[in-house]
Write a structure and sequence with these properties.
The structure is a single chain. The chain has 260 residues and is of the alpha/beta class. The chain contains 9 helices and 9 strands. The longest helix is centred in the first third of the chain and has 16 residues.
Length: 260
């Protein structure tokens, strides 16, 4: 071997600069690839919207490869509180107008909110209806009734439904869920005799529950307002437009929601 030579590398160390440059270029090419997400949209949505929203997001991302939607689901009152507390959100979709109005009053909503869909309340029981519930009036005779938290939209709608029916359930016979999904779980897990939940949640539960009564034509109707929030990022307007499109409404109707 000649002094200064290199084993297995003809030409000595002269080939290293070219090799190093090639590796760096390859790394940079991977790092600058346009195949991955280029922008994230932060979406806060009522928990009752989770199932159709996930399908809407999947379709939106497939049609917009450069965009990614990061969803946060909870009761509308909780989500509004997060935004008021400074949580960064681009698009919000709530289950009641009151939560959106709180953000509007604080100057955090851009433009006029649109209505994504509607929903109604139903009384559900265990399969076979062992408690023989026929209407909301029968709930006063049950051991445990599952209702949403009083501060959640579904809790306020339930109170309105019961007031209109002239029904007063002792709080000692009530178990409360943070949202409609957790309220429904009290029935599917056998912890309650009946519950008042959204029609969409009852449909999602399938044969694990039985619907025995609806809110009726004059019962409360849940509106789902959606809007851009002040300071939203790139692409949020396009996502909101997609949410309010016929393509999204089709998925919402399939999930048991009503038209706007």
């Amino acid at each position: 071997m000649k002094p200064g030579g290199s084993v297995g590398r003809p030409g000595g160390s002269a080939g290293w600069p070219a090799l190093t440059t090639a590796v760096l270029l390859a790394v940079l090419a991977v790092g600058c690839s346009t195949d991955g997400p280029t922008s994230t949209i932060r979406f806060s949505a009522a928990s009752s919207l989770r199932e159709p929203a996930e399908r809407i997001i999947e379709r939106y991302e497939a049609a917009n490869p450069g965009m990614r939607v990061e969803a946060n689901y909870a009761s509308s009152s909780r989500l509004a509180g997060q935004v008021l507390g400074g949580a960064p959100v681009d698009v919000a979709a709530f289950a009641d107008e009151e939560s959106m109005e709180l953000l509007s009053a604080a100057g955090l909503v851009e433009g006029v909110p649109g209505v994504l869909a509607t929903n109604q309340l139903v009384v559900v029981v265990r399969p076979g209806n062992p408690a023989r519930v026929r209407s909301a009036a029968d709930l006063v005779d049950l051991g445990v009734v599952a209702l949403c938290d009083e501060e959640a939209p579904c809790g306020r709608y339930s109170r309105e439904l019961l007031d209109e029916a002239g029904v007063a359930i002792e709080e000692s016979h009530v178990t409360r869920g943070r949202n409609a999904a957790s309220t429904l779980a009290a029935i599917t897990e056998g912890d309650a005799d009946a519950a008042i939940v959204y029609r969409s949640d009852a449909l999602r539960a399938g044969d694990r529950v039985e619907v025995v009564a609806g809110a009726g034509a004059d019962g409360p109707v849940a509106l789902y307002p959606t809007a851009l929030l002040v300071g939203h990022g790139t692409g949020a307007g396009g996502f909101l437009e997609y949410l309010l499109s016929e393509r999204s409404l089709e998925l919402l109707l399939d999930a048991g929601f009503g038209p706007p």
